[in-house]
Amino acid sequence: MVVGEEVQLMPETLNQQIELCRAFGERVFCYHRTELRRFVWSYAQLFDHADRMAAALRRRGVQRGERIMIWGPNGPEWIIAYLGGLLAGAVIVPIDVRQTKDFALRVAAETKPRLIARTRLLPGDGFDLPQLILEELPLRLSEVEPQRFDDVAPQPDDLALIMYTSGTTAVPKGVMVTHRNITANYTAVQKAIPLQGHHTFLSLLPLSHLYEQTGGFWYPVARGDSIVYLQTVTPKAIEQAFRHEHIRAVLAVPRLLQLLKDGFVRKLPISESRLERLLRWTEPLPRSVKKLIYFPLHHFIGWDFAYFVLGGAPLDPALQLFWERLGFIVLQGYGLTETGPVITVNRPEARRLGSVGQALPGLEMKLSPAGEVLTRGPHVTPGYFQRPDATRESFTEDGWFRTGDLGRLDEDGFLFLQGRLKELIVTDAGVNVYPLDIESVLDRFDGVRESCVVEFKKRIHAVLLMDEHAKPRAAEIISQANRQLDEAQRVQAFTVWWEDDFPRTTTLKVKKGEVLAKLHAREAAADIAVPAATAVVDDIAALVARIADVPVTQITPQSKLGDDLGLSSIDRVELVSLIEWEKRIDLGDVDLTPEMTVAELRQLIERNQPDRASLKFPRWGRWPIIRWLRELLQLAALFPIFRLFVRLTIKGRDVLPAPDSGPYVFIANHTSHADTAAILYALPGRFRRRLTVAAWAEFFLRPGQPLLSWLFRWVLYPFLVVLAHIYMIPQQRSPRLSLQYTGELLDHGYHVLIYPEGERHASNQMAPFMDGLGLMVTDMRVSVIPIKLDGLDRTLPRGSAFPRFASATLTFGQPIPPQAGTHAEIAARLREAVKSL
Which of 662, 649, 681 is nearest to 784 (CA)? Predict the structure, then answer.
């Protein structure tokens, strides 16, 4: 038996830890990199919102001990719901964001939560309970006063979480997790891995998994460290995070290391074999020297990066050695949701290749006579929610938890895993897949006498014992079954069994070991097939239907995104984000046109090679010398010419906010080409010098225009960048790139001027505002300053090339903070705000 070194378990509840963390104040809690912006949250902001969330939950009737569900991606909003629930005394029921609605409904039926907090990207129909949208929480909670509750003082053995880990077709099995389970675990990890100084952690695994909660959240938060959250975990987003956020450590699964290695090796001018020889030669050198030798990789990952902390799936020792030789520290651990989750971990000063480490301080671990890993201590779950039989089966008579994993211990207490006692399949993403769940789906199909699901060549492989007449439909059956399974469970390859029956025991159970042996013997046989595109069209159609808000049955492969389904340019931007998020792919700067069909969209995703947009953004317009030249041109030329023709009356300048309270989006009705000059002239210098102007891209990139017209616009664009700091936003194609650049400008402290009508109209004929404005307000969380223009349409009326003398009025309105609602609703409200000035 191995007993870890004793460790003081303080604090003993998560609520006590929250109170201790309030002292971190303005220290950065997280950097949230979304599709459009980068938000910085301090600990003070986090706990202020958590207190507001607790008050909002109590207002909705959530009492101590009742349950709330959280179903969404990682981010500060998820954490706010999580901490707010704990502060209100609730028990949290996290649902993996990749789980199906049917699974979530079954969990809701069993746990009977009072409320669900979910992302707007997941369906909410069918839940007969109140719902909160995670993305709207910061806006909704601004209307709630923060409150702390004296009746919430959980004991260490009180329930904090119910974690559901079973597959979607099985009866849900929730692991009960107490406050003591988590605090004991991350406190022990702190003892085992005592990092020095401030660290920034990159969060890549779902917070709905206890591994990420304990190691990726509570461990750094208890130290006052910072965390980076990504809205979409795509290669591009990960690369940008490594490049810009000074990442020090990351919790991940082995697949991430393999992906990083493949990407790095592909870019090298030498072969992988030569690289391996170089790595062996440089292995004895100190890390500082290795950082110089392998400069490209250390530059890509970041000079501060040091630790890969891995779990969830077996790590190939050769892969670990590759990264260790490059100068990084790879710490592999082991555990289960039922064990807090960490049981063993390699230490920075004590790690062994191929081992999952030594037992954590304060817990016990031993091997059964059969070699099964057993553990007990404060980290172990009290059992499964409303499953007393399953609880009894998971513990020995003297209270040891049975992990179901086989292992061996060396003389120093390092654990080496040797396989699984049960038939659990662990994917390379660290997801547990239960073959019985898949088999129960396959066995329901007509013509399938029995199925057997095994892990073959590191894939989820289905072996089908079929009636003769049904064998030609095997691929179709696999495709239909995959539509009913969660993405992590889907069959990746299949074989139609060629014998009359499976090999069986005397009790008629299938001998899966013999099935695997025969598969290996026939590995090159033609009847082992990999379905090329199982249910891909239907998967994509379901995502399109979610954005289009139509039944999926109405969508065919020939349906056009814009012409048939009515998806606006903003809808298509959201569709790209949804696909990247659901499929974990990076579509890059893809342009979804109104004429694109669902089938063409599917092909684009399968190729994963998007067409690159031609828009280029003038970052050089922010150079100091250009800003100095812009100020000179405006004061010496633009403003004198404008004053020569226009007598402008300016109203409301006194309501403009302080210069350091922004950035802001200025919105104005569009009456003439003189509008921008009027606004620049009216703005105080503190705003004007940091203003950028969104211009209609099609004016400059109009296809089929005469040569002289093209040359004029080709020269005009850089001139206007210098004069007014414009950049392009398209109306006819996807504005995704332009929206991302808008977010970049706001992140750098620049204000943005937008004309939401999209084209010029007379002062008394204001057109509807485009929905994209609503997206900016909600997703970029930026305050808006409305501007009303009157009379400038008389100065430069439509069709006029020369200005006329006229009087005009410009009125500034009060800043309007970000608000919740649909994009169309927000755009309509902002239009009324401008119109009423």
Answer: 662
